[in-house]
Amino acid sequence: MFGIGTQELLIVAGIALLLFGHRLPSVMRSLGRGVVEFKKGVAGIEDEISSASQTEAKPKSDNV
Predict the structure, then answer these.
(1) Is 3 left (phi over 0), alpha (psi -120 to 50) or beta?
(2) pTM of the model
(3) Which of 3, 19, 34, 35 has the smallest number of Cβ neighbours within 10 A?
(4) Which long-range contacts (CB under 8 A, 24 or more apart) does 22-30 make?
(5) CA separation (Å) from 64 to 25, 55, 61?
(6) CB-based contacts of 27: which residues, under 8 Å, 6+ apart?
């Protein structure tokens, strides 16, 4: 992954912890909420698509 090894990732994580240590829990909480909202949105779109495809798949009866 971009030529970054384990040691480099640990160094970056350590620097991030030093810089954002006191705010890190709130940042992670906000990130988690964002991911949950994104998943809800994707699920809603998938539901709309599946219901639309089921509606189109049903044959229309002709009353003649």
Answers:
(1) left
(2) 0.52
(3) 3
(4) none
(5) 67, 22, 9
(6) 20
